[in-house]
Specification:
Helix content: 55-70%
Shape: globular
Strand content: 5-15%
Strand order of the largest sheet: 1-2-3
Number of domains: 1
Bound molecules: iron/sulfur cluster
């Protein structure tokens, strides 16, 4: 089975869950409650690490609940890399759908060609954007980066629409960001999303990563052409950019004969 099929299943189930959870709450079933900013599953708390960090910073307070809510997301990041992004984040799914729509509409392909300097340039932009956001948050004392957290907004809008039957202005922020995906290839996740950038800092070299396991590949570069974050999967699978989507593994034609590129744990 293609990795993309498994990934798409996980994405659709996650999308369904953000609507099903508030429905359950309306029916007074509270085993799972919350959004992607912060969620409780039974007695287990899970929160977006960036949201927690901002909350600690803005309030100057830190408590055991906040720390406990970081354990699962950070452990996932350490052992499985950025699978949150490509396997579960609803924005990523929408961005992939926008990309398919762009192709169907026959719009120009704005995907840039891979160059060796591209990942480091993307890193500079991402971390500068995150740093500026944190400075603004520190100055005004408000967790402003939550206002542009696409997964948090999407899940909280799902909650509001199910519970109260309306949406708020925050939905417009996500729609505008998504609209520009038509013209700037996967720009939000590659350059700006503070949630993804913050999470990527917990990437561990020994965790799950794409690796080329044979030297004599046919050098067709299908893996590079398929990579949504425009890195070279053969040499940069361990980088902070890779979200372990597995598209490069699916695209590799040599894999049909002999395993050439695959997920590994070191
Ligand atoms: S970078 Fe942000 S918006 Fe993109 S998939 Fe990751 S968390 Fe979601
Ligand atoms: S290197 Fe492979 S797994 Fe990583 S983001 Fe690119 S296509 Fe996905």
């Amino acid at each position: 089975m293609k990795i993309k099929t498994m990934r798409r299943t996980a994405q659709i189930l996650t999308l369904a869950a953000i609507f099903i959870i508030p429905f359950m709450n309306v029916w007074e079933l509270y085993f799972v409650k919350g959004t992607f900013y912060s969620m409780d599953i039974g007695n287990v708390a899970i929160a977006d690490p960036l949201a927690v960090f901002q909350s600690m910073f803005a309030s100057g307070k830190i408590n055991a609940y906040m720390i406990a809510s970081l354990i699962i997301p950070i452990a996932l990041m350490i052992f499985f890399g950025r699978i949150w992004c490509s396997w579960f984040c609803p924005y990523y799914l929408f961005a992939e759908w926008v990309e398919s729509l762009r192709r169907k509409l026959g719009f120009r392909d704005f995907r840039p060609e891979y160059t060796k300097t591209m990942p480091s340039r993307a890193s500079r932009v991402r971390f500068l954007f995150l740093f500026l956001g944190l400075i603004v948050m520190g100055v005004i004392g408000v967790p402003v980066l939550n206002l542009i957290s696409a997964p948090g907004i999407i899940s909280s809008q799902a909650l509001v629409v199910v519970k109260f039957g309306y949406v708020t202005f925050e939905l417009a922020i996500v729609l505008v960001i998504l609209f520009f995906e038509l013209f700037y290839f996967r720009y939000w996740c590659r350059f700006f999303c503070p949630t993804g950038t913050f999470l990527s800092m917990f990437r561990w070299k020994r965790g799950m990563a794409v690796q080329k396991v044979r030297n004599d590949c046919s050098k067709c570069h299908s893996c590079i052409k398929s990579c949504p974050v425009i890195i070279n999967p053969m040499t940069e699978g361990e980088s902070l950019h890779c979200n372990n989507c597995g598209d490069c593994i699916d695209a590799c034609q040599d894999n049909l004969n002999k395993q050439t590129i695959k997920f590994t744990f070191k």
